[in-house]
Design goal:
The chain has seven helices and four strands. By secondary structure, the chain is of the alpha+beta class. The chain has one domain: Nucleoside diphosphate kinase-like domain (Alpha-Beta Plaits), CATH 3.30.70. Strands 2-3-1-4 form a four-stranded antiparallel beta sheet, sandwiched between helices. It is globular and about 35 Å long. The protein starts with a strand and ends in a 6-residue tail after the last helix.
C-alpha cells in the first residue's frame, strides 16, 4: 500500500449545519493526517474548474451554484490508500443509497446536498489539491 494525499471538501451544507468537525474527526480517528485546511468561499471560476469533467451535463449549473452558495472547508488528507478509503468512508453519492456508518449515510439529507466531496483518483487528487491549495503548502 502507498501513502496518498487527497482532497476532501466539507460542502456548504456541512459547514452550515456545523458538521465539519464531525467529518474531520472521522478521518482523524481512522488514522489519516490532516496536512492542510482552508475555509473559503468558492468563486464561480474555481467551481467551474473543479467540476470541469461535468461541463455540458444538465446538472453542471446546479453543482456550481451549490458549491458557491456558502463557505467550504477544504482539507488535504494523507494516509495509506487515502483516496479509496476516503471514498469508502464517504458512502454513495446519493445518501439514500449510503450505508449507515458512512459520512453520507449518517449525515447527508439529499443527493443535491450530500455534505462531502473526495477526489476519485490520483490524477483528480493532484489536480484538485492544486486548485484548492494553490500556494503549494500541501
Amino acid at each position: 500500500m502507498a501513502v496518498e494525499r487527497t482532497l476532501v471538501l466539507c460542502k456548504p451544507d456541512a459547514v452550515r449545519r456545523g458538521l465539519s468537525g464531525e467529518i474531520v474527526a472521522r478521518f482523524e480517528r481512522r488514522g489519516f493526517v490532516l496536512k492542510g485546511a482552508r475555509l473559503l468561499k468558492v468563486s464561480k471560476g474555481l467551481a467551474q474548474q473543479h467540476y470541469e469533467e461535468h461541463k455540458g451535463k444538465p446538472f453542471f449549473g446546479e453543482l456550481v451554484a451549490f458549491i458557491t452558495s456558502g463557505p467550504v472547508l477544504a482539507l488535504a488528507i494523507e494516509g495509506e490508500s487515502a483516496i479509496s478509503v476516503v471514498r469508502t468512508m464517504m458512502g454513495a453519492t446519493n445518501p439514500a443509497n449510503s450505508a449507515p456508518g458512512t459520512i453520507r449515510g449518517d449525515l447527508a439529507l439529499e443527493m443535491s446536498e450530500n455534505v462531502i466531496h473526495g477526489s476519485d483518483s490520483k490524477a483528480s487528487a493532484k489536480r484538485e489539491l492544486a486548485l484548492f491549495f494553490p500556494d503549494g503548502l500541501v
